[in-house]
Amino acid sequence: MGGIKPPFFMNNKIPNFVKTNQFGLLILVIVFICIFSFSTDGFTSRFNIYALSRVVALDIMIGLAMMVVILTGGLNLSLGALGVSAAMFGGWCMESMGIPISITIILVLAFGSFLGWINGFVTVRTGVHSFIVTLATMSIYFGFMTLLTEAEAFRKLPEAFTDFGSLKLFNKYISPLLIISVLTCFVLYYIFKYTDIGRKLIAAGANPDAAELSGISVDRMFIYCHMLSGFLAALAGIMLTARIGAAIPSMAGHLGFDWLLPAFLAPVLGGTLLSGGKVTVFGTMLGAILVTLINNGLYLIDVGEFWVRFFLGIILLGAVLLDRAREYFTVKNSIVS
Amino acid sequence: MSALLKKDWFGLGLVLIFGSILISLFKPAFISPFNLYVLMLSVSLMLVVAMSQMIIIAIGQMNLSVGAIGGLVAISFTGLMEVYSMSILPAVLIGLLIGLACGFINGYITVKTGISAFIITLATLYIFKGMNLGITEAQPFYEIPEAVKFFGNAKIFGPIPYLVIIPIIITVLMWILMNRTSLGRYMLAYGNNVQSSELIGISSTKIVIYAHVISGLLAAIGGMLVVCRLQLGTPNIGDSWLLPSFAAPVIGGAILAGGKVDVIATAFGVILVSIISQALVIFKIDPFFVQIFLGFMILLAVFINRYREYREERRTKVFSDE
Fold first, then answer.
1. Contact with chain B for residue A142, Cβ under 8 A
2. Domain count across chain B
């Protein structure tokens, strides 16, 4: 490629960060914050920021849970059903069995990982796209959960647990749930960036054949991704239980569908490739923040409760189109330089 | 005979016949006229929905917005008749037009941007559903003309409802499309291998847009049929279509990567799902089990398809060794 010197505006003077879509997202987040704080009352109020932090925390976690499966080039439709099932299991442990909170949390996370393992195992063994596998397990998990709980909620959870969900930190602005989510982001970033296993996961997702040839067990990596997804979904389930103060079978909607849009929006906005092999932990975090902001802002602007979905759809469409345009221009630039 | 055994629908057909005989031996109520009537109603509604998804599976994509299109058309259809007191025929035509437009949007954006149809239809799912809720504010339309109500309720003779006519016509047309027309074969070729189909001169723009437009039209018809059946237009029509719309084609042996669908087997898949749901109700099993069962059915179908593929591969290997 050498020989021709690129013109000054296409060399590396522009920091790489500016070209990434994390940067674009950051700008968008700032722009939306400005718009909403000027055009609505109460956007910057303590109450609203606290409410936002509780919602964002969950959206980040759900987005990460989807992201680690998208890494394999697959999808996890069972995310919501899995998270709610795990949360209901936790509610049962605490309320009916009287198991202490810390042990319950460990059990719930193990249970979530196990359900994720089922997804991964069936996907890998049948070679069928995870879309269809998780479509099936979604209705299986949700069906079993409704059957076993008889659609009854667990409302008498230990106070220490529910108090944590309504705790207010930093001058009563931030929920501790958000701190858990942000910490999870850092841990995942560390895993994918600096650990052996994280690099193997990415390699397996990016090019399964090449990874297999270089001695990575792709099947095992894919199962790990699904287990990690189950783990994070279960964590999201616990967080939601703490936030509501009860474990309710319908807290993620029918079949857990309410979680699906934020789950896809965050990683896709964040620049995770749907074909697999590329993850952006902080992109996903920014994506989740953007979605929550817009959602919240739309309510405050008063577009009407029923139109919020419409605008979210438009925004998802706009975001993927913008991302496509960005990709197109960066590819053109990289060919030139 | 061996050619018959290889067909996707053959095994399913056997399962259907023996399953029905077995169930009716245990519970004679299964073949009562009323039960057959209910069964045919549910089959005919899901048939259209399954075909709507099947044609997108044929080109190797997915359409998550099938239910949202159905819902939007259903409330537009009833809304036009109730609020603007339009007569039935123009309302049906406008309903079809909306379905066509929704499908066109899906297809056009997918093919022009090259973004996966999954994401595009997820976005349009929310757009269409949002429009539906925005227009209706989650309130149903109740004022349906008598003729529409009659069409949804009346029987031709015996237990056979009028409602089965349109789904049967659609199934026949779909069979002709997929097996006897160049457009259908091109769709399968495109689903099988995008690159090579483009190399032999198939226009991917045309194929993808046609497939999505047909899918949108079928979803629209499905939505309007549900209105006839329910006798009202509620905004939540189509909400529960996603799982069954994939279940029937997959049970019928469709490969999600595209290039292989079977119209008859899909129809049998619909009937199988309906019979099982019905049987579970007759045996007084918890309705939540129906959902679990549907999930296991998909997994089972997937395993069987995989096994057959594997056996096929092994057989061809033996021949090539000789």
1. yes
2. 1
Residue B200 CB partners (closer than 8 Å, separation 6+): B189
Mutate to test the interface with A, among B250, B273, B298, B313 (most CBs of A within 10 A): B298
Tell me, what CATH number does A146's domain have? Answer: 1.10.3470
**B-proximal residues of A, 302-321, CB under 8 Å:** 304, 306-314, 316-317, 320-321
- Per the structure, the complete domain to which residue A309 belongs is given by 43-326
Report ipTM (2 d.p.): 0.77
Q: Give the distance from residue A271's alpha carbon to the nearest chain B alpha carbon, in angstroms.
A: 13
pLDDT of residue B321: 47
At A18, is the pLDDT very low, low, confident or very high (cuts 50, 70, 90)?
low
The boundaries of the domain holding residue B109 are: 33-321
Residue B9 is assigned to a structural domain of this protein: no
Angle at A57 between CA A53 and CA A58, to 5 degrees: 125
| CB-based contact A106:A132 (threshold 8 Å) | no
* Burial of residue A8 (number of CB atoms within 10 Å: 0-12, 13-18, 19+): exposed
The answer to whether residue A291 is domain-embedded is yes
Confidence (pLDDT) at A6: 54
- Per the domain annotation, does A183 fall within a domain? yes
Asked whether residue B153 is domain-assigned, the answer is yes
Q: What is the pLDDT of residues B129-157, one digit of tens each?
A: 999 998 888 888 888 888 888 888 888 88
More confident residue, A82 or B30: A82
Task: Give the model's confidence band at A48: pLDDT under 50 very low, under 70 low, under 90 confident, else very high.
Answer: confident
Whether A266 maps to a domain, the answer reads: yes
Axis crossing angle, helix B287-321 with helix A130-149, rounded to the nearest 10:
150
For an interface test with A, which of B246, B291, B297, B312 has the most A Cβ atoms less than 10 Å from its Cβ?
Answer: B291
Helix (H, G, I), strand (E, B) or coil at A194: helix
Query: Could you tell me if residue A59 is inside a domain?
Result: yes
